[in-house]
Amino acid sequence: MKPKLLIPKQIVTVNSKNEVLHNHAVEIIDGKIERIVSLKDLKTSEYNGDILDFHNYTLVPGFIQTHIHLCQTLFRGLADDLELLDWLQKRIFPYENSHTKNSLRASVRLGLHDLLTGGTTTVLDMGTLRNQEIIFEELIASGIRAFAGNCMMDKNELYPTFCDTSDWNLKSSYDLAKSFHNSNNGKVKYGFAPRFVLSCSERLLKETKEMMKDFSSSVFHTHSSENKSEIETVKRMTGKENVEYFESIGILDQNTVLAHCIHLNDSEVKTLKTNSVRVAHCPSSNLKLGSGIANIPRYIKEGISVSLGADGSPCNNGLNIFNEMRLAALIQKPIHGSTVMDALTVFRLATIEGAKALHIEKEVGSIEVGKKADLVLLDLDKADQPLLINDEGIYSSIVYSASKENVKSVLIDGKLVMDDGRCLMFDEDELLSIGKNELQQLLKRVSI
Ligand code: GUN
Ligand code: FE
């Protein structure tokens, strides 16, 4: 690839000083940020490479979402107004169980289109029980940076036909990790994904953790403490609270990402901290399923890793990070006061904190020399946004006012995947027509 010189209006670096740079250009060589250079020191007319003139746009790091279900995108709008266990039993399990390879592919592509056009450049995806290789194929084709894995389920009282044996789950995950961990030039990694306590035997959870030792830099991704009825069931099954149970079987450490963590007692919060567990906060999903509001300001104060995720399309109903940032800030204020979750804090959750959660902060999450060029260009100069007369308002503009309509161009590893408001990886009309056809057929197969 030819060197590229990006010239934005300003650069929101998210470095340790949260610097915002003006009159600077970013040079990209071999997918990495080679230089961040003042325009005063540059003779652009002599530049030997491609110049990308984005002088109206603000450059920010690519967004990172640490809890997503791409296999569910097809079911957007088909599972509204239900609480978690009904939502799973009456809708999501039957739908997921009815996927064919083609419907799964259509779902994943729709999800990836939503993510890329919203400026998300890295995801941790929960995967699917069957045909997980389709998800990997699509992740690789899309160019996104991702951790993903077979959604493991070796029991399912809510919908008994949707699970498989422990041996099958373990072998399938191991084989997939062998094939896809560190694939696509290291952009795709394995995220072991036992779904939640209600769908996983103790053996499955423990042996999965054990298996991870063969795959350094993989993560362990599961749901925890999302819904009160779920937690009651976990207590009946194990005699313990959700996080207590995970601790007792030895699966909590810095490589564990727990989605939600809404209903925790004090001792469980301490457990997250002492074990350096990562919390994936999903505010839209938590509100829509009526699950509750996690005490995120407390987790942050305690030094617990918190990052953001849109969860699945049917509990949101979209996958864009702007909704998650805005809600992550707003939902805490009536409880803890309006000074908590300021815009800068929240913007960092969606960028560098996501990278730290996945241990890839040396590669992505901020705009610094040596990092991968995962970058997003936002048009913030709009009459319906704050008028940016100085740097003060920039985080406010992104967190409280922006939406995915403000995303103009997106690069991953220095390659444009969206430009001038147009996704370069997918044809939207084709996604729609294939998606509708697959959904129609799936709804004929499913019995709910
Ligand atoms: N818990 C177990 N599975 C799921 C899921 O698909 N979505 C959410 N939000 N919670 C879950
Ligand atoms: Fe989820």
Question: Could you explain how this protein is built, in words?
Answer:
This protein has 448 residues and is an alpha/beta fold. It has 2 domains: 4-61 and 367-423, Urease, subunit C, domain 1 (Roll), CATH 2.30.40; 63-357, Metal-dependent hydrolases (TIM Barrel, Alpha-Beta Barrel). The chain contains 16 helices and 19 strands. It has helices at residues 84-97, 101-117, 132-142, 166-180, 202-211, 228-238, 242-248, 266-274, 283-288, 296-302, 321-330, 333-336, 343-349, 352-357, 394-401, 428-445, and strands at residues 4-12, 20-22, 24-29, 32-38, 50-61, 63-69, 120-125, 145-148, 151-152, 188-194, 219-224, 256-260, 278-281, 305-308, 311-312, 375-378, 407-412, 415-419, 422-423. The strands form 2 sheets. Strands 6, 7, 8, 9, 10, 11, 12, 13, 14 and 15 form a 10-stranded parallel sheet that branches. Strands 1, 2, 3, 4, 5, 16, 17, 18 and 19 form a 9-stranded mixed sheet that branches. Helix 4 (166-180) runs parallel beside helix 5 (202-211) and helix 13 (343-349) packs across helix 15. The longest helix has 18 residues, at 428-445. The model has no long low-confidence stretch (mean pLDDT 97). Fe (iii) ion binds next to strand 6 and strand 15. Fe (iii) ion binds at residues 67, 69, 126, 223, 259, 311-312.
